[in-house]
Amino acid sequence: MATDSPLTVQELIDKLAKLPPDLPIFVEGYENGWDPIITVEPGSAQPTAPFEDWDGEVQRTKSTSEAPPDAIFLIGRRGHRRQRQT
Description:
Order of helices and strands: HEEEE
Helix content: 10-25%
Radius of gyration: 14 Å
Distance between the termini: 23 Å
Number of strands: 4
Shape: globular
Number of helices: 1
């Protein structure tokens, strides 16, 4: 797992506030290139270990009343190509 901490909502807001508001935002594509962000969804981040180089470090699970969201997920146009946890 990377040693850097995940960016927080406030840190992202601070970074984005310095940029022109009409710039599009992209996330890494499924294998190559970049995809536009189409939505933002709350959820829970569950660490994945061990993981391969091509895998993400966490899996997303949906939050519930017993388990409120502990993360925000930026969903790219082709995020549906990734296996999603429910």
